[in-house]
Amino acid sequence: MTPARDVGGDFFDLVPLADGRVALGVGDVCGKGVPAALFMGVTRSLIRINLRETPDLPGAIVKANAYLANNNAGQQFATLLYVAFDPRSGAIEYCSCGHLPGVIRRADGAVETLSSGGLPLGLFEQLKMKVRGAVMRPGDLLFLYTDGVIDAEDAEGRQFGEDRLVDLLVDGAPVGAAQWIARIDAAVPAFAQGQPQFDDITCLALGR
Fold first, then answer.
1. What are the pLDDT digits (tens) for 155-169?
2. Architecture of domain 10-207
3. Angle at Cα 139 formed by Cα 21 and Cα 85, nearest 5°?
4. What are phi and psi of 173, to 5 degrees?
């Protein structure tokens, strides 16, 4: 994660679950600076606490949203994408709350986009959570990110964009998750060519 200011509103998380799965996710709070960072901290902490009590991904997010919606004088909100990964089978279940879709890079280089949608957290007390699933096979990579990646601009105002991100994932030789992050972390500022970063940039990768 690279914040646009001294503190940011993006977050990422990784939580071992009691049933042997691992929950991981990224999120993006509206705005920047200290208010966004405070709302981010509360959001992340609520989801983490709920997951540690019960390994129920959609339930943890719904409970966190109910608290946020009832204690949100600043009318802030957070988009997020959380995944529960089973390392034994490769199965994942995921919940999207108004966030950019994650992608799976298959071992053969094909890239599949996960479904997105849903409402951000913090705006409405009643939140209907849709749970979707996929399977990661050996050699696959799951990649989650925030809009600071694709919204980065060069000197001519062109955005890095989703297509360029997908091309990077398709064309790159297969490496570990940390190396994929390093590639993207280098590609975005190289594209921007010295233009100031105006949004937080967060990436999270998981390889099977």
1. 999 999 999 999 999
2. 4-Layer Sandwich (3.60)
3. 15
4. -65, 145
- The radius of gyration of the chain's CA atoms, rounded to the nearest angstrom, is 17
Please determine, for residue 202, whether its predicted confidence score (pLDDT) is greater than 90. Answer: yes
Residue 97 CB-density burial (10 A; 0-12 exposed, 13-18 middle, 19+ buried): buried
Name the residue ranges covered by the structural domains of the chain.
10-207
Q: What is 91-122 written as a DSSP string?
A: EEEEEEEBBPPPEEE-TTS-EEEPP-B---BT
Token pair 């089978």 is found at 89
The DSSP H or E segment spanning 26 is strand 22-29
For 19-58, write each residue's pLDDT tens digit.
999 999 999 998 777 888 889 999 999 999 999 999 999 9
Burial 112-143 (b: 16+ CB within 10 A, else e): eebebebbbbbbeeebebeeeebebeeebbbb
Q: Quick one: CA torsion of 41, 46, 52, 58, rounded to 10 degrees?
A: -120
Average pLDDT over residues 140-146: 96
Matching residue, tokens 């992340």? 44
Half-sphere exposure of 183 (CA within 13 A, CB side): 19
Task: Assign 83 to helix, strand or coil.
Answer: strand
